[in-house]
Write a structure and sequence with these properties.
The protein is of the alpha/beta class and 366 residues long. The protein contains 14 helices and 10 strands. Strands 1, 2, 3, 4, 5, 6, 7, 8, 9 and 10 form a 10-stranded parallel β-sheet that branches. Helix 5 packs parallel to helix 6. The protein binds S-adenosyl-L-homocysteine and iron/sulfur cluster (SF4). Iron/sulfur cluster binds next to loops.
């Protein structure tokens, strides 16, 4: 290992240049980076992986992000919305398995019917007999009244990726209108913190024209915004999106995968007590990609509990996995890989991010 990498890894504070250097290491230097991140994880949040049952509630979206397969402009998408029974089946499975939390994710809608439907689901999940599950939402930009309403009904975490913290790059990824405005996304994140949510964000890695400097900026943004939970994964092209035309300019998928691991590791060095989710997109590149991220400092996995018949319709990117994760055989395999990575599984707890307590002084359910 070169002396400068060993020196950087010993530093208490990483400068932008250090981060850019770490994001490019390979081979044994990358292994040293990942090991350092895993040691920080073990010390600050423990060698635990928390499960959250992921429910992809609906693929109907009012937005038109240039990278995403379920964008409004993709007329090939077969719209679906899960029934209450389908949602509660996934909730029941999470409860039976003693996973502490579920995530409700969907395309963005802000009409009254949608807001009320989500509100009703939150209340039903909270009332699930014998088990109070933690609820994470990932439903895009909403107004303050909606965030507050869902929080009052029992949701306490919210994931809203900034996608790229560089406003110029962000603008290239979205239509130029008020709904897709960078400032709106940023304001939403701040609103979520103001409304007391455990606040999550993240970025895509390996986007067209994205540089190492951009990625270092993303990590520093996450640190400076005092974010509690992070989900970031490789950008993967989708043929029915405007960005597909840049596919020949992208890093090979395998490199995007390795870079995503290094981003995870550097983030863990920068933010020692946050929760980091192993992105589903890692699994589209490697069947056990998510488990690899645990060694790099991630501590959350979100097994997909959406009924299998809808998987093909929630196609954000190419090769999004369509395996049925709601089977005991699958879960046993996942658990075996997690143990092999060195972690225990955090059963029976919400697995809240320690950072929320550090940031707000409020109690958490860990
Ligand atoms: N509509 C909500 C939540 C669903 S999309 C929202 O946008 O916040 C969830 C995440 O999927 C997005 O934040 C984006 O980072 C990711 N995503 C979308 N298209 C992708 C692609 N082509 N490759 C990788 N991730 C993608
Ligand atoms: Fe809709 Fe989210 Fe996809 Fe953008 S990323 S098109 S908001 S589902």
């Amino acid at each position: 290992m070169s002396t400068d990498i060993a020196q950087i890894l010993r530093k208490k504070e990483l400068a932008r240049e250090d981060i850019i250097r770490l994001l490019q290491v390979k081979g044994e230097e990358q292994e040293a980076l990942l090991d350092a991140a895993y040691r920080v994880k073990a010390e600050y949040v423990g060698k635990y992986t928390y499960f959250r049952g992921l429910i992809e509630f609906s693929n109907i979206c009012s937005k038109d992000c240039f990278y995403c397969g379920i964008r409004r402009g993709n007329k090939k998408v077969q719209p679906y919305v899960l029934s209450d029974e389908e949602v509660m089946q996934a909730v029941r499975y999470s409860a039976e398995k003693d996973w502490g939390s579920v995530v409700i994710q969907a395309g963005e809608r802000s009409d009254t019917a949608f807001i009320e439907r989500i509100d009703s689901l939150i209340k039903q999940i909270k009332a699930f007999p014998g088990k109070e599950l933690g609820i994470t939402l990932s439903l895009g930009d909403q107004d303050e009244a909606t965030y507050r309403r869902w929080f009052a009904s029992g949701a306490h975490r919210y994931l809203l990726r900034i996608e790229s913290a560089n406003p110029e790059l962000y603008t290239k990824l979205h239509p130029c209108d008020a709904r897709h405005d960078f400032q709106r996304r940023l304001d939403s994140l701040k609103l979520l913190q103001k409304c007391d949510y455990h606040t999550g964000t993240g970025v895509m890695i390996g986007l067209p024209s994205q540089t190492y400097d951009d990625l270092a900026g993303d990590l520093l943004f996450i640190r400076d915004m005092d974010i509690d939970m992070i989900g970031m994964g490789p950008y993967i092209e989708h043929e029915d999106t405007p960005l597909y035309k840049y596919r020949d300019t992208l890093m090979p998928l395998q490199e995007r995968f390795e870079l995503a691991l290094r981003m995870t590791a550097v983030l863990r060095l920068l933010m020692k007590d946050v929760n980091i989710a192993a992105a589903t997109a890692l699994q589209a590149i490697h069947p056990h990609g998510r488990e690899r991220a645990l060694r790099a400092g991630a501590n959350v996995i979100m097994p997909n509990l959406t009924p299998v018949k809808y998987h093909g319709d929630y196609s954000l990117y190419l090769n999004k996995p369509t395996v049925n994760e709601e089977t005991d055989a699958y879960v046993r395999g996942l658990e075996a890989h997690i143990h092999a990575a060195g972690d225990e599984i955090g059963y029976g707890t919400w697995g809240d991010p320690v950072h929320y307590k550090t940031r707000t002084g409020k109690e958490i359910n860990k």
